[in-house]
Amino acid sequence: MIELLRARRSIRKYTDKAIEPEKIAILKEAALRSPTSRNKHPWEFIFVDDGELLGQLALSKPHGARFLQGAAIGIVVCADGEKSDVWTEDCSIASILVQMVAQSIGLGSCWIQMRNRMYDDQVTSEQHVRNLLKMPNHIKVESIIALGYPVEKKEPISREDLDYSKVRINSY
Ligand SMILES: Cc1cc2nc3c(=O)[nH]c(=O)nc-3n(C[C@H](O)[C@H](O)[C@H](O)COP(=O)(O)O)c2cc1C
């Protein structure tokens, strides 16, 4: 795991290659194996591989989502907010675990933030996603994880670049 983390970077450019069904199955398993507070499993995952839908989801906010259009799939990580008061934590854990497992099977990925983001002056990114994917209003949207075979290769962050002053011992 530490080797995966050392190599981990956000990947936003993907080849046209589709992701094999066996790998999609692994991603589904990773999502469903994610731990949740009080084991409530408030999350749900919408796997979007329809190019037109991906193009529309890529417009969910003015910045930081356009590359979803070129992804092989986007996984919408959402949750029933009434099932858990910590659904954001549960969704975040699932999002990053999916990303790490994706990396372990040769895929690139990037988190696209949806919660607390706006589509335009009036409509939230979340509502835009809900409308597109016919989701009921009580389902909250945390993120979309864009995935595909990487085109870009990014250098790992070196250990020298880690800010160890962020880690304190015994007191602040
Ligand atoms: C909570 C969270 C939200 C993020 N939202 C976006 C996003 O909306 N669009 C995007 O392009 N990248 C997004 N990212 C990726 C970060 O920009 C990226 O992780 C950061 O710049 C560090 O780069 P690296 O992942 O290559 O180390 C997000 C990452 C996290 C953890």
Short description:
The chain has helices at 2-7, 21-32, 51-57, 87-104, 125-133, and strands at residues 43-48, 73-80, 108-113, 139-148.
Strands of the widest sheet, in order across it, are 1-2-4-3
Report the total helices: 5
Beta content comes to 15-25%
CATH topology of the domain at 43-151, by name, is NADH Oxidase
Number of strands: 4
Mean pLDDT: 97
Helix-strand sequence: HHEHEHEHE
CATH superfamily of the domain at 43-151: NADH Oxidase
Bound molecules: flavin mononucleotide
Radius of gyration: 17 Å
Q: Which regions contain 5 or more consecutive residues with pLDDT less than 50?
A: none
Overall geometry comes to globular
The largest β sheet comes out as: 4 strands, antiparallel
> What is the CATH class designation of the domain at 43-151?
Alpha Beta
User: What is the helix content?
Assistant: 25-40%
What does this structure look like?
The chain has a domain at 43-151: 3-Layer(aba) Sandwich (NADH Oxidase). Helices cover 30% and strands 17% of the residues. It has 172 residues and is α+β, with helices and mostly antiparallel strands. The longest helix is centred in the middle third of the chain and has 18 residues, at 87-104. A four-stranded antiparallel beta sheet has the order 1-2-4-3, with helices on both faces. The protein is built from five helices and four strands, in the order ααβαβαβαβ. Bound molecules: flavin mononucleotide. Residues 9-10, 12, 64, 110-113 line the site of flavin mononucleotide.
